[in-house]
Amino acid sequence: MSLIADAAKIKRWREERHWSQEHLADLAGLGLRTVQRIESGEAASPESLRALAAAYCVDVTALSFDPRGRAADALRQKNARARAALRLSLWIHLAGFAIGVAVFVGISLGAGYFVMLWPLIWWTVGVVAHGATLMIIEAVTRYQDRLIMAGGHVDA
């Protein structure tokens, strides 16, 4: 697992302790310029990360993040938003369908026979297709999420 220094966290922790960059560099046994580079988001060597972790008395993973982990979190969030949006669109479709059925029944009652049968049948097919699409998207995105949680690689 490749780790990248979390520059914002390193800087925030230093500022919360009211340490200067010079003080942090002395505690970690690093050069001032190295601390400045790390806090500005430039790459940090594993040795520099270990030295900073020792200065903060934390594990090196607390000062870094896994880019694949962040990408996996982003994909899970994207999947959750997509599922929520599709569920909402189905509910809107169903509400419109219910209103349409009421209107079609009213029209048909006025005509004396069910003149709106074929439009109602095709609208029903559309609602069922929308529901089927939702079920497929739910299944696929939940499968992707399980793969991600299991540590598998998923291309978005």
Short description:
The chain is mainly α. The protein has 6 helices and 2 strands; from the N terminus they run βααααβαα.
Number of helices: 6
Overall outline: rod-shaped
Order of helices and strands: EHHHHEHH
Count all strands and give the number.
Answer: 2
User: Compute the gyration radius: what is it?
Assistant: 28 Å
Low-confidence stretches: none
Relative strand content: under 5%
Strands across the major sheet, in which order? 1-2
Mean pLDDT: 90
Structural domains: how many: 2
| Share of helix, binned | over 70%
Largest sheet: 2 strands, antiparallel
Strand pairing plus helix content: what structural class? mainly alpha
Compute the separation of the termini in Å: 20 Å
Structural commentary:
The protein has 156 residues and is an all-alpha fold. The protein folds into two domains: 4-65, lambda repressor-like DNA-binding domains (434 Repressor (Amino-terminal Domain), Orthogonal Bundle), CATH 1.10.260; 67-149. The protein is 74% helix and 3% strand. It contains six helices and two strands. Strands 1-2 form a two-stranded antiparallel sheet. Helix 2 packs across helix 3. The protein is rod-shaped and about 90 Å long.
